[in-house]
Amino acid sequence: MDEATRLDYLKVMGIECWHVRETLEQNTKTTISNKMETTSIPDNWEQLKQDVNNCQQCELCQSRTQTVFGEGNPNADWLFIGEAPGEQEDLQGKPFVDLAGFLLTEMIRAIGLTRESVFIANILKCRPPDDRDPKAIEIITCHDYLSRQKALISPKIMVAVGRGAAQKLLKTDEPLSKLRGVVHQLDNIPLVVVYHPAYLLRRLSQKQAAWQDLQLALKTYQKLETV
Ligand code: URA
């Protein structure tokens, strides 16, 4: 993300304080110089895993048990993206492993895929303490890892899992009701928004709508395959 986009993003989120901006400038310089260093060397999966593993770019490194890189097929056509690891994910080092994770696996199965055939990642690679909302600065500093994952996986379709992930990926405050049911484009890749499985566990009445979201994602993918 370039400096202008980054500052726009913060502005939209209402963060304009002098102190944060100074931190941002430092971070921007670090990210730009990291990018300059890495652009000449082709990226690779092992390097990326190591970078995530050793990351100390924000305060979440102090509270995490471990990073959650993501898991699945590094050549997947489908990339599922959640917002941030929770307690169990932090303990096990894997995304979506609790009851909601079980339901996500079932949702993936419902469209004829397996958890192993897709890739599942989060926007943040570390759990925010007490599962609080991610801070803007954490999203910004972690953004590069997801971008690198996207570049290496080169998915044909992306699925944003839940409101938090959808809003952050699409940089919008629109409610989930407006974001689902539509095929978005992110970096020229179609992106479909689905209900978070944790929400579905609380509201089983939304199962039908969740099925529609999955069908939309599947139809979008199938259309790509026939082009
Ligand atoms: N919710 C998420 O968004 N990601 C996880 O990994 C687990 C729960």
Main attributes of the structure:
single chain; 227 residues; alpha/beta; Uracil-DNA Glycosylase, subunit E; 6-stranded mixed sheet; 6 strands; globular; binds uracil
Q: What class do helices, strands and sheet pairing give?
A: alpha/beta
Q: State mean pLDDT (0 to 100 scale).
A: 87
Question: C-alpha Rg, in Å?
Answer: 17 Å
Quaternary arrangement of the chains shown? single chain
Query: Any ligands, ions or cofactors bound here, and which?
Result: uracil
How many distinct folded domains? 1
Q: Distance between termini?
A: 31 Å
Physical arrangement of strands within the biggest beta sheet: 1-3-2-4-6-5
Q: What is the overall shape? A: globular
Question: Architecture in CATH?
Answer: 3-Layer(aba) Sandwich
The CATH C-level name is: Alpha Beta
What name goes with the CATH superfamily?
Uracil-DNA glycosylase-like domain
The largest sheet, given as strand count, sense and whether it forms a barrel, is:
6 strands, mixed
Descriptive report:
There is one protein chain. The protein has a single domain, classed as Uracil-DNA Glycosylase, subunit E. It is 52% helix and 11% strand. It has 11 helices and 6 strands. Strands 1-3-2-4-6-5 form a 6-stranded mixed β-sheet, sandwiched between helices. The chain is globular and about 40 Å long. About 13% of the residues have low confidence. Bound molecules: uracil (URA). Uracil binds next to loops.
